[in-house]
């Protein structure tokens, strides 16, 4: 704890306190690596995703319906489903 880094996987949560790690539409290991890099190397340009540093009193980011950038069929029956591109 001398470096004040303790990572937890509840850095991003749903409104129902569910872990985004499990609730995301598809697996994004690149986001996980970036989120962990942010905890291990603070002060960089990495974004918070999945992980947070509880030793630094970081709070989780709560994702809400308002966070969506496009309308999904589950929210609006008239919305068209879009294919998921494989990396």
What are the key terms here?
87 residues; two-stranded parallel ribbon; elongated
How are the elements arranged and paired?
Elements: E1 7-8, E2 12-14, H1 20-23, H2 29-40, E3 52-53, E4 61-63
Report what the structure shows:
This protein is an alpha+beta fold. The protein contains 2 helices and 4 strands, in the order E-E-H-H-E-E. Strands 1-3 form a two-stranded antiparallel sheet. The protein has a two-stranded parallel sheet with strand order 2-4. The longest helix has 12 residues, at 29-40. The protein is elongated, with a radius of gyration of 15 Å. The mean pLDDT is 83.
Q: Order of strands across the biggest sheet?
A: 1-3
Radius of gyration, rounded? 15 Å
Which term fits the overall shape?
A: elongated
Number of helices: 2
In quaternary terms, these chains amount to single chain
Largest sheet: 2 strands, antiparallel
Record field, number of beta strands: 4
Low-confidence stretches: none
Protein structure class: alpha+beta
Mean pLDDT: 83
Distance, first to last CA: 37 Å
Helix percentage range: 10-25%
H/E element sequence: EEHHEE
Strand content: 5-15%
Quick summary of this structure?
This protein has 2 helices and 4 strands. It is of the alpha+beta class and 87 residues long. The termini are far apart.
């Amino acid at each position: 704890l001398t470096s004040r880094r303790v990572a937890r996987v509840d850095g991003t949560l749903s409104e129902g306190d569910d872990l985004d790690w499990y609730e995301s539409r598809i697996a994004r290991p690149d986001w996980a690596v970036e989120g962990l890099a942010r905890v291990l190397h603070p002060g960089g340009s990495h974004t918070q995703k999945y992980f947070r540093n509880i030793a630094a009193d970081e709070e989780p980011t709560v994702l809400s319906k308002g966070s969506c950038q496009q309308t999904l069929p589950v929210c609006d029956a008239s919305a068209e489903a879009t294919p998921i591109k494989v990396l």
